[in-house]
User: Fold these one by one.
Assistant:
Number 1:
Amino acid sequence: MSGLPNCPKCNSEYTYEDGTMFVCPECAHEWSKDAAGDADDEDVKVVRDAVGNVLQDGDTVTVIKDLKVKGSSTVVKVGTKVKNIRLVDGDHDIDCKVPGIGPMGLKSQFVKKAD
């Protein structure tokens, strides 16, 4: 056992080092040594609010800035509490139902986790 990681593409155990890269002789896949340590961390995306608190599904957040609703004349007012958020991938990383407006996407930089 050489202590080198298996190939992330074909799971071959015959990987070898080539400078700052790992190489798989079976499928010719190459990856950096830095990426090898972060392979387990790729699945976990941490979403933080405007002040740095970690957000999770089901949290309650407060809007910290008046937000114009695109395609409408409505505004989400500062201080609006949004319950039961859902984290998603993308530019607007929070899916939620804003009271009085309905379902919409928010950016985490404009909310603060409620106490």
Number 2:
Amino acid sequence: MSDEHKCPKCGSENTYQDMNLWVCPDCFHEWDPSEQAEAAEAEAQASRVVDSNGNVLSDGDSVTVIKDLKVKGSTSGIKAGTKVRNIRLVDSSDGHNISCKIDGIGAMYLKSEFVKKA
């Protein structure tokens, strides 16, 4: 049996189709496989990281800072036009989704809305 007919709640293969829904008699969970595919696609769209112009970023890309940014604990900030090489994408709760090293400043996190793909 394929994985699409396994119960997403308990993982049981003992499922059956009832009209448009699939039903698991073990845990009484009902689901629509088409809604699951749409939810997976929406999650994939949400996990993409895009720059200020809408270009998709990936690990190892080079980006250019588009705005002067202040850096806490430093008298100088990051100037617009600074090129950052070899970025790494990270999941962060505060919106900083790029990890990088900037010459003269060191390792830091950036928000993708303040960079463009180089």
